[in-house]
Amino acid sequence: MVRFKNRYVLCEVVSEDPRCRHCIEDRAVGLAVRDAIGRVHGDYGLACCSISFTVKYLNAYTGTVLLRCRKDSYRLLCSALPFVRQLESRNQRYPCLLNTLHVGGTIRTCQKFLIQYNRRQLLLLLQTCPNEEERRCIQKSLLSCSLTEEQSQSGDEEDDDGTE
Question: Per the UniProt entry, what are the Gene Ontology biological process annotations, in alphabetical order (predicted)?
Answer without folding.
Answer: rRNA processing; tRNA 5'-leader removal
